[in-house]
Structures are given as structure tokens and as C-alpha cells.
Amino acid sequence: MCLPYLIMEQNMIAAMVKRVREILVFFVLAILSKAIGTKPHSRTRPPSESVSNECLSWRLAVEANNVRGWRTVPAHCLGYIETYMIGGQYEQDVNYIVQQIESYVTNLVMGGDGMDAWVLDIDDTCLSNIFYYKGKKYGCDPFDPSSFKAWAMKGACPAVPPVLGLFTKLVDSGFKVFLVTGRDEETLAPATIDNLHNQGFIGYEKLIFRNQSFKGKSAVVYKSEIRKQLMEQGYRIWGNVGDQWTDLQGECLGNRTFKLPNPMYCVP
After folding, report:
1. Residue ranges in the chain assigned as alpha helix (H)
2. For residue 141, what is the DSSP state?
3. pTM across the whole model
4. Secondary structure letter of residue 159 according to DSSP
């Protein structure tokens, strides 16, 4: 075979291999996007300084519980909230809060009777729903119970890394950790249990779901009753951690409460 034809054939083969690789990469990305239930999403245009300042004030008011019962993130704050959640500041804030919790834990004197307890929320405390809310414009779209249920049943929530580290430290230190969630026991228990275990949340004392006896009751009433039951059993609740103010309000709150940031949604 002549050299020019050989070179031409080699170039054609190389081009075909490159094209096949491109197709495979696109196919894999499509599968991953479908697996996490999100559509391809490009970053929104960075907000102007005046919008950023206004949305920063809104977020701080939300975290301080001065804005209550809000249903959606203001539409003009989409870019700001997106940047906050995935640009590094959210992770830094969570890390800082967990450091404060761990400092508090270090100075606790346990009773030694197996009754020292902590209460942790699950959604956006132990497990992150960032992939789901990315498809909901980070909370600018109204909450959709059916859509969230379908997402939760996939069991695809990643752990919130600092909270997983805190959880492990609490368990290793001898605390009884109770995971209390507003998720429905009948429909979401199996997927949630598998999700927690797959992400490393192993060794908790009990995982408590909302059941039929709490149907129609507010989050504050439900979680207050659960904590009350624990204290009536003799447990000393040294700490209570959640991303919603309704996780941390009501009765039997424990010795201290710790609020993690979440500007994407509000549980009334």
C-alpha cells in the first residue's frame, strides 16, 4: 500500500475514534443527568452589586428568623442564592457552625449511663438536596411535594460532609444520636434508610419518621412531641441540630440548638 493512502487511512481511523469518544462522553453525561433527576443547567448571570446586597440582606433576615413563612426565594435573587450555595460560601458557613458544635461537644461531661443524646434533622442537615433544588431554581420555584417525594425515593442525596463528620464524632464519643425527620414513614422510610447508610450514617440510636399519628400537625408540634418522648424516657438532649427554625422551636429543645443555613426553602 502506498504511503499517502496509508496516512489517509490512519487519519480516518483517528477521526472515527475521536468521534466515538465524543459520543460516549455525551452518553455518560446524559445518563448521569437523568440519574440525579436534573436537567442541564447553566449558571445564571452574576447579579449586580445592588441586587447582591439586597439578596444578602434577605438571606440574613431569613437565617435570623426575621422573615417567616416565606414560600419562594425572590426571583431576582436566583443568581445570588445559586452563587451562595455552590460558590463555596455555604460550605464555609456549615463548616464554621460544625466547628462551634464540636467545640461545645469537647467540653461536655457525659453522665456515663448511656442516656446522653443528640437530635439531628435529616434533609439539608445530614443529607443534601442541592441536586434537587438546582432543578427548582434554588427555591425560586414553589415547593412541589410530589416532585420532592419522587426525588427522595431515589435515595440519591449526598451527605453534608461536615455533619457526617460531626455525626461520627458523636457516635464514637458514646452519645445516642436520634435522627428525626419530617419524611413520611410509610412511603420514604426504606429509601431514606438506604440513603443514610450508603452515605455513612451508621450507628445512630434511632431513626424517627413522621407517621400517621402526626398527620396534619405542624413540624414544631411533631418534633416537640418526639423530643418530649425522648426526655420522658430519661435521655438528656445535649444538642439539637437542624436547617429549619421549626426544627429548633417548641418544647424540650435540649441544652443547646444549632441552626444550619438554608436559604432555599422554609418549612412552616
Report:
1. 3-35, 49-63, 78-86, 89-106, 130-134, 145-153, 161-172, 185-198, 219-232
2. S
3. 0.82
4. B
246: its cell numbers: 421549626
Cα separation, 7 vs 113, in Å, equals 79
pLDDT tens readout for residues 126-169: 999 999 999 999 999 999 999 999 999 999 999 999 999 999 99
Closest CA to 243 of 126, 78, 106: 126
**Nearest one of 254, 230, 229 to 242, comparing CA atoms:** 254
- Per-residue cell: 24: 460516549
Could you tell me if 71 and 143 are in contact, meaning their C-beta atoms sit under 8 angstroms apart? yes
Phi, psi of 144 (to 5 degrees): -120, 100
Neighbours of 69 (CB within 10 A): 6
Counted residue by residue, the chain has a size of 268
Cα distances (angstroms) measured from residue 248 to each of 5, 13, 161, 232: 75, 64, 21, 18
Q: Are 163 and 97 spatial neighbours (Cβ–Cβ below 8 Å)?
A: no
Closest listed residue to residue 156, CA positions, set 26, 38, 263 = 38
C-alpha–C-alpha distance, residues 220 and 23, integer Å = 51
C-alpha cell at 144: 412541589
In sequence order, the β-bridge partners of residue 210 are 184
